[in-house]
Amino acid sequence: MDRIDRKLLNLMQRDASRTNVDMADEVGLSPSSCLRRIRRLRKEGIIDRIVAILNSARSGRVIKALVTVELKLHGEQHMRRFLDLAIAEKAVSHAYAVTGETDVVLMLRLRDMEEYDALCDRLFRDQTNIARFFTMMVIRTAKEETAIPL
User: Which helix (H) or strand (E) holds 32?
Assistant: First the structure.
């Protein structure tokens, strides 16, 4: 990956809806060369996917919460079982298996507290392998970035 690739990737991370012609002009390439580079970056897996980032308030998901989960039983099969349940939940936007005292960290995007309560019933209260979970409701977002520094 060279300087032009990094510049293209930074442009796309800020706004992937820009036209190929616009990005080519910005990085000093012909549109065909720019398109070839972008296709190569996708083929190599550097560009994983191109998505739209929604406004959470306008899309009806106004509550953000972080949940740490400690499992009673450890091991790959127990971790996989819980992660599969979490991944299936629409309100779970991020699910991470982590090191330390906590086993899993979840990020939730919720419509309301009723949705949170129902999710807790499904993921935590009905599961015998949950030792404990802690929920932190986000009251203010200081930074929420999707771009990866290059």
Answer: helix 31-43
